[in-house]
């Protein structure tokens, strides 16, 4: 679906939020959860390959991929009513012409609130929510 949208409408920005793993986590389906993560990994590979094949358009498109929230550890894997710190950590993939190539890192953790301001910073918009954006992602 997302790849079709990408080809059809050529957006400058795509934000894709993976939701299926969360549902499986709430069902305490760890095997299904891991399978969903592998599906995401395959999709990311497909998306990356697609963007690379789209020439200048692919190079100028900014993509954010994430989940709605992370998972807690141990007994906090299934539920998130308390929103432990580990649940606020998110997986985030960012690719675009104004982003740094930093590879895979776990140096810092951020939550969803940083995505909006990071998009605003990348596109030269005023930061409307707060001044916190992902400095390690934005190429200035
Ligand atoms: Zn959830």
Short précis:
The protein has six helices and three strands. It is α+β, with helices and mostly antiparallel strands. It has a three-stranded mixed beta sheet with strand order 1-2-3.
Describe the structure.
- The chain has 140 residues and is α+β, with helices and mostly antiparallel strands.
- The chain has a domain of 86 residues.
- The chain has six helices and three strands.
- Strands 1-2-3 form a three-stranded mixed β-sheet.
- It is globular, with a radius of gyration of 16 Å.
- 17% of the residues are buried.
- The model has no long low-confidence stretch (mean pLDDT 86).
- Bound molecules: zinc ion (ZN).
- The site of zinc ion (ZN) has 4 residues, from helix 2.
Write the layout of secondary structure elements.
Layout: H1 2-9, E1 13-18, H2 20-26, H3 30-53, H4 55-60, E2 62-67, H5 85-88, E3 92-95, H6 113-122
Parallel strand pairs: 1-2
Antiparallel strand pairs: 2-3
Helix pairs in contact: 2-3
The structure holds zinc ion (ZN).
Zinc ion binds next to helix 2.
N-to-C SSE series?
Answer: HEHHHEHEH
> How much helicity do the residues have?
40-55%
| Biggest sheet character | 3 strands, mixed
Query: Which descriptor suits the 3D outline?
Result: globular
Name a few traits of the molecule.
140 residues, alpha+beta, three-stranded mixed β-sheet, 3 strands, binds zinc ion
